[in-house]
Amino acid sequence: MQTDALVAIRAGKLFIGGEWRDAESGRTFPTINPSTAEPLTEVAEGDVADVDQAVRAARGAFESGAWPAMDARSRAKLLHAVADGLEARADELARLETMDNGKPLREARMFDIKESIECFRYYAGWADKIYGDVIPLPGPYLNYTRLEPIGVCGAIIPWNYPLQMAAWKVAPALACGNTVVLKPAEQTPLTALELARIASEAGLPAGVLNVVTGHGETAGAALVRHPDVDKIAFTGSTEVGRIIQREAAGNLKRVSLELGGKSPNIVLADADIEAAVRGATSAIFYNTGQACTAGSRLLIDESIRDEFLEKLAKRADGMRPGDPLNPKTRMGPLISQEQLDRVLGYIEKGKSEGAELVIGGDRAEVSNNPGYFLNPTIFDRVTPEMTIAREEIFGPVLAVTTFADLDEAIELGNKTDYGLAAAVWTQDVKKAHRAAHALRAGTVWVNMYHTLDTGSPFGGYKHSGYGRELGKYALDLYTQVKSVWVNLA
Ligand code: NAP
Ligand code: MG
Description:
Elements: H1 5-8, E1 14-16, E2 19-21, E3 28-33, E4 38-44, H2 48-63, H3 72-88, H4 90-101, H5 105-126, E5 141-149, E6 152-156, H6 162-175, E7 179-183, H7 190-201, E8 209-211, H8 216-225, E9 231-235, H9 238-247, E10 254-258, E11 264-267, H10 273-285, E12 297-301, H11 305-317, H12 337-352, E13 356-359, E14 377-380, H13 387-390, E15 397-403, H14 406-414, E16 418-419, E17 421-425, H15 429-438, E18 443-446, E19 461-462, E20 465-466, H16 474-477, E21 479-487
Parallel strand pairs: 6-7, 6-9, 7-8, 9-10, 11-12, 11-17, 12-15, 14-15, 17-18
Antiparallel strand pairs: 1-2, 3-4, 5-21, 10-20, 13-14, 16-19
Helix pairs in contact: 2-8, 3-5, 3-7, 4-5, 5-6, 10-11
């Protein structure tokens, strides 16, 4: 076991009601470093009883007025203090994220941690700007609305962007005056625990943010079923999203779901080819393909197919995975043995269903590292019926299909149950906007890929979920509207 001081700190404990506690059962489980396949540390295995304690703490902080009744400027100040705390420890947090998740250190620092800090700052800015309307009505009435917090929010997050997914949910929920119980993914619990520590040191009152590490089927399910949780915000697989929507029905919890994707990345014949090749590479290989917005279906105009594929394969070949702590590394391992097996299973399916393997498809040898490394993989001549064109693989596996014209590109692009993101590469402004309007996805990029910002809404169409995180839109997820009538007669 690695005895890195960074990971030893709060491991093995839950954060409930402002205190570090063991799980009631006393049980723990290991979190694994995916680049070494070795345990980093032990984490508390929270279950039904612990979730119940955490919900009680969150309810107490909500009802006692410790948080929602605090004046909004003071709440804003505390959220800025959380951002300051994250910023002061950004390098450590990046290292922790890299060890727990396997993503390249540079990306963890420049993207995950940076964006998490910005997210807290952005919603700190909103805290005192959340207010209703005065509505002119016929009659001798004063009618106005108040945007009130929902109550206790359960946040269940995946392992692909651990701290960032926590920030996307915790920051707006707290800005709106809710209290939170956060259940991080079992594979990547460490930065969520550090967030709790930093928030507590920043002065967040006890019970406002609670973190229960544990498994989805136990701790996660207990949170979803708990009768005193008012809302669940979930990011993860469409399969689990369906379970959550069903299980949350008991007390009619509000639910927002950020689910999987199979996003089309469309390159028209008039595109800037070099830029599109760079974009297509990062679209699929960024975060080792473990991104819900991954551009996993590359649709290219048949007239540029050969040139494009040749350049793409060359660039992908330069993306060979390496030790994520090495600053030069651009691609790390997959998250787990299970995920590696899943992705290798899809690669076999691609071959057996007749797709043409252009590059990769095999495990990567990274010196002295027995981790879950896979080479960047590209399949050509993929038809829309093939499994690798339909299902979310969540790995560095690209499916390439060609089209004859823009209409066919859009039709192919929309031929999926998912609708999280899409991109189009073209120099023709009319075609760009036609495609952007016709593609049924929550985000459409033109001549770019993967760009997100805390200020811009993010979420899915179709089976990619509903509700919009980020921007002012996230405030809708964490507030409810009250209409107040005053008789002036
Ligand atoms: P997942 O099962 O959907 O996990 C997401 C979160 O939900 C985790 O915290 C998980 O806990 C929890 N969870 C699981 N079952 C639950 C239940 N019945 N009730 C409440 N919470 C539950 O995703 P995964 O197993 O990590 O990955 C499987 C596949 O999902 C991936 O291969 C990928 O295709 C997809 N995925 C998509 C996204 C995305 O952002 N769209 C993110 C991650 C994964 P545990 O960690 O304990 O399982
Ligand atoms: Mg881990």
